[in-house]
Amino acid sequence: APSYPEYTREEVGRHRSPEERVWVTHGTDVFDVTDFVELHPGGPDKILLAAGGALEPFWALYAVHGEPHVLELLQQYKVGELSPDEAPAAPDAQDPFAGDPPRHPGLRVNSQKPFNAEPPAELLAERFLTPNELFFTRNHLPVPAVEPSSYRLRVDGPGGGTLSLSLAELRSRFPKHEVTATLQSAGNRRSEMSRVRPVKGLPWDIGAISTARWGGARLRDVLLHAGFPEELQGEWHVCFEGLDADPGGAPYGASIPYGRALSPAADVLLAYEMNGTELPRDHGFPVRVVVPGVVGARSVKWLRRVAVSPDESPSHWQQNDYKGFSPCVDWDTVDYRTAPAIQELPVQSAVTQPRPGAAVPPGELTVKGYAWSGGGREVVRVDVSLDGGRTWKVARLMGDKAPPGRAWAWALWELTVPVEAGTELEIVCKAVDSSYNVQPDSVAPIWNLRGVLSTAWHRVRVSVQD
Question: Which pLDDT value is given to residue 87?
Fold first, then answer.
């Protein structure tokens, strides 16, 4: 057998582009796949997601990589082996984030502590259901470690009574209900707002949105079991508290209107499953709230308490965040009491393929993306332009038709068009929902100091080259 040189992971990580060579690892072997990048059946952009790192997390997404001929092909590109001296660094016992779970290395990280990351745009529209390991992660605080056997969900009942449910009781006492729903952060596409004027918040690209099949007990069933009526007179709210807490002990919290929580058509869940498996730690294990059609901030993870109140949740994230304001409001004049908390989100869409700045070959170009609207409103059309919005074509929508008012999941769309060499394209998309709401054409009129509700036409510029 040939003798191979040894490399550290840091040395492998320096080779991340065709200009500097593209190296990857599989097991303890190192491969230079530069010459294979353009030959990759899934396209160069897919294999470049693993550049400078391990292939395994990406290969696991597609079963074909387990075929013997794929491993044989890879061996042709072997250039070395990982040094056996490498060992992971010991965790810092004083770090409150030291107990966070491992994450997929392909995620685009916007902050490490707390961990916030989105899937690569190239993979967003590849599957209707987002794989759990690629589902966008929005954490505000360290991820709590929960022992399932000792977990208890507290539901404050009417008249001062309390219902305490174990995970096993939540599973056995209430019928399991499943719903396919898209969750989107209020800050999705914030980076586009920051190009108009600086905003405060994580620099999300287009990936703070994902879709999963959730399973759990209906919140309605649990509240009725606790003794609450179908309706309450006046304005009431269902408040949620998570097990994640700041150094002072204040938990993450949020609330939704009582009518939504009790509506049989709203499909609000106390979820314990995600895409057919137990919830991952980053996504709320053992129990989280899933509020379809509503901003992700209300779908509280690691749920510890549910309470009914005449007031919204007193949590900072309900009272002093996740609200929209006029472009004229700045940090010297903002008053959070004057704006309602975001609940249902406006209509949204984005181009996932091709990526900005790409060089695409002449011939047929397939443009792909996602579209979604809040409140269960169905996306009825996606318009796509290749010339910045002067002329339009209608994209093909994919996905099952949902019952009226319960279109909780996104629509994936695509459009194949001929393109000529030597041209510059400004690809634009805009979605229309069943109420004929449509996205605004530019960012500036909807700019706000927190960079939320960024739903302007999505624009991607590419060149067509031989």
Answer: 57
Residues of the chain with pLDDT under 70: 1, 60-64, 87-94
Q: Which amino acid is at 289?
A: V
CB 80 within 8 A of CB 33: no
Measured in degrees and rounded to the nearest 5, phi and psi for residue 65 equal -70, -15
Report which DSSP code applies to 442. -
Tokens standing for residue 145:
């470690």
**pLDDT value at residue 194:** 96
The answer to whether 419 and 425 are in contact (CB under 8 A) is yes
Token reading at 116 = 């916030």
**Cα-to-chain-centroid distance, residue 444:** 25
Query: Which pTM was predicted?
Result: 0.87
Alpha-carbon distance of 89 to 80, in angstroms, equals 23
Which residue, chain included where needed, has tokens 């332009």? Answer: 385
Per-residue tokens: 54:
């391990």
Q: CA nearest 454: which of 327, 354, 368?
A: 327
For 268, which DSSP code?
-
User: Other CB atoms closer than 10 Å to residue 126's CB: what's the count?
Assistant: 19
Measured between alpha carbons, how far apart are the two ends of the chain, in Å? 42
